[in-house]
Specification:
There is one protein chain. Helix content is 73%, strand content 2%. The protein is built from 27 helices and two strands. Helix 1 packs across helix 4 and helix 21 packs antiparallel against helix 22. About 2% of the residues have low confidence.
């Protein structure tokens, strides 16, 4: 690429555009941003290929991560093969492939003269944008700022690399800090980013800031590095600030309705130990219900679900197994070597400051990954990849090794065709999830508007685009059931059940599709429209509820419906046993307690029935002054008058 700088400069612009855009739309995790990221990476590849074809030589700069990237992609493909829900695993394989492409394309682009300086300025600029955004949020309303991200912790993790990079340029007396106004600007940027970390209350952000600054200072003076980290820790502990407040809170870090990180880690490690080969890429959240734990003081004890391990290293272990974890750690080791060990000539202020700052930024991201799921945020991953590519260029320079594919004049046409097909395949791969999502969303809108034929057409289009996506089949089932409910005939009902069965086949770990199918069957059985088949339908529904309960053993609503079906089938003893299990998991599910009290009364177990009634009334009183969300209020809600009537029928005294 060095010989075609006129085209190569566009690759630099695209590299910077991807990094700058990544965090700006809803944290970068929804379908539209992901599609744009992948399209930009594909465009970046296309520009690179066009430039190479013109020169008759395709060239990629090698990195210290080559072996690790290759091995991890192999581990990912193996994980795809063993994953129960292959569509989700394939989604993550695509994510990793586009990340790997971006790394090598960015590395090649940054080999152009002056490109690293532009990239460093882009990192500092994005730090300024996000920190200003966070400070504005902090000033406008109380609470933890989140910038453009979903989560304040992600904002904190994102602004730390620009903070330590700016600090490194100052400490190592880079030429950009030679003038007073420039030095003042860098100092302000570092201070703004640090202020956002403190305002966010992110303990992981504070940890990553300490790690990043220790790397910057370590290259200057080891004693100064240790002393500075100690001073920072003491300052955060001694003076009032949001970080200290969150550390001083309960271990859950944010109230009784937040998850305990240590409990998540413990359960995630158990999952990893139970599955030495891994549960499959992207399949962590579908295994999680069987490893969930109760939140002691919450109204809904098992109401929270962890989609990630909140520790990237444990998460990789759980999803890709021991082999995947070892490859991942090997990659971290090689990355550390690549960003930390500059060539002998890097001792002047200009290069040393940039090198130390880039290494510090990468270290901060990786340390943050020990306590959070920051590598699930595309904005942070693209930032880490750009920091790494910059560091490799600064540390290796012209000495970097290259992959080169020479093409004779006669072979250029073939190379152009192959390159075009590759770019087209990547473009289609990037577009398919976004297209299916678009069809699903338009189908939902059509269904809300009452246009069932259009809703069905759009949903079928989504299924055609992504036949392995269980969500597409689930929505098609919803449309078909709506058609049935509005007089569409038995065929629509059976088709809805078939779509739910297909969704369950595609994603066998999710109990939601099984539960929905059971709901439809039991609803029809209980309606009395087909009294002769009612018992058979209810029995089939009970089998499905039992399957859903095995997939999510702590789901209170599934257990409650199981008890209702057993009552419908004339099995009160089994219903009571199910409800006893339920209230053992969720003691504040008062509707279940009331149904259990009614069963006890019918069985002649009046003391137990009375005990349940008193427990309901006591819990109603204890929660009168407790702020509850709408979901929690519905969960604990019960008609106290019915409880009083039942208690009166038992001869119980009024409280």
């Amino acid at each position: 690429m060095a010989g075609n700088t006129s085209t190569g400069k566009y690759t630099v612009y695209l590299v910077i555009a991807i990094t700058a855009f990544a965090p700006l739309i809803e944290g970068g995790t929804t379908h539209l941003p992901v599609f744009i990221f992948r399209s930009l990476v594909t465009a970046l590849l296309a520009v690179h290929l066009v430039s190479g074809i013109r020169l008759g030589r395709l060239e990629f700069v090698r990195t210290p991560l080559d072996a690790a990237v290759g091995l991890f992609l192999i581990a990912s493909i193996i994980s795809l093969i063993i994953a129960p829900y292959k569509h989700m695993a394939m989604t993550w394989v695509a994510v990793l492939v586009f990340y790997a492409l971006y790394l090598y394309l960015a590395r090649a682009a940054l080999a152009l003269p002056g490109a690293t300086g532009y990239a460093v300025l882009a990192v500092l600029g994005m730090g300024a944008v996000e920190s200003a955004w966070g400070i504005a949020q902090w000033a406008a309303e109380p609470g933890r700022p989140h910038g453009s991200f979903f989560n304040p912790n992600m904002l904190a993790g994102y602004v730390v690399p620009p903070a330590v990079l700016a600090a490194s340029l100052l400490i190592h007396r880079h030429k950009w800090a030679a003038r007073r106004y420039a030095a003042f600007g860098l100092a302000c940027l570092a201070a703004m980013c640090a202020a956002v970390v403190v305002a966010s209350g992110s303990r992981g952000g504070a940890l990553s800031l300490a790690a990043g600054m220790s790397v910057v200072l370590w290259k200057r003076s080891r004693r100064l590095a240790v002393a500075s980290v100690v001073v920072l820790a003491l300052a955060l502990a001694a003076f009032p600030n949001p970080v200290r407040e969150r550390v001083m809170e309960r271990e859950t870090g944010g109230g009784i309705y937040a998850y305990s990180r240590t409990d998540i880690w413990r359960s995630s490690v158990k999952m990893a130990l139970d599955h030495p080969a891994g549960v499959g890429l992207g399949n962590f959240k579908y295994h999680w219900p069987r490893y969930n734990f109760p939140i002691g003081d919450a109204a809904i004890k098992y109401g929270k679900m962890a989609a990630t391990a909140h520790n990237e290293y444990i998460h990789v272990w759980a999803e890709t197994g021991v082999a995947g974890l070892l490859v991942f750690l090997y990659g971290i080791f090689m990355l550390a070597r690549g960003v930390w060990s500059p060539r002998d000539g890097l001792r002047d202020a200009e290069e040393a400051g940039v090198s130390a700052g880039l290494a510090a930024g990468a270290a901060a991201v990786l340390v943050h990954g020990l306590v959070d799921s920051n590598l699930h945020e595309p904005g942070i991953v693209f930032l880490l990849l750009l920091l790494s590519a910059c560091a490799f260029e600064v540390n290796e320079g012209a000495g970097a090794r290259r992959w080169t594919v020479e093409a004779s004049p006669g072979a250029r046409a073939r190379l152009a065709v192959m390159s075009g097909l590759l770019a087209l395949a990547l473009a289609v791969w990037a577009a398919m999830p976004a297209l299916a999502y678009c069809f699903l969303e338009k189908g939902k809108d059509a269904l809300k508007a009452g246009n069932k034929a259009e809703a069905l057409r759009l949903t079928e289009a989504a299924v055609a685009v992504e036949p392995g996506n269980a969500s597409c089949h689930d929505q098609k089932a919803a449309v078909l059931y709506s058609v049935y409910a509005s007089g569409g005939g038995e065929g629509a009902f059976e088709e809805a059940l078939a779509e739910l069965e297909e969704a369950s086949r595609l994603n066998p770990l999710s109990g939601r599709y099984v539960e929905t199918e059971a709901d439809l069957l039991f609803g029809r059985a209980a309606s009395g429209k087909d009294s002769q088949a009612g018992e058979a339908l209810a029995s089939r529904a009970l089998e499905l509820y039992s399957k859903a309960s095995a997939l999510n053993p702590y789901d209170a609503y599934v257990l409650f419906d199981m008890a209702r079906v057993r009552l419908f089938l004339g099995r009160p003893d089994e219903a009571a046993s199910t409800l006893e299990t339920l209230v053992g998991y969720e003691p504040d599910f008062l509707g279940a307690r009331l149904l259990l009290a009614s069963i006890y009364r019918e069985q002649g177990r009046k003391d137990l029935s009375r005990e349940q009634c008193y427990s309901i009334i006591s819990r109603i009183r204890s929660m009168e002054k407790v702020p509850l969300t709408r979901e929690e209020a519905s969960f604990v809600g019960v008609d106290e008058a019915r409880v009083r009537e039942l208690l009166d029928s038992l001869g119980g005294a009024r409280n």
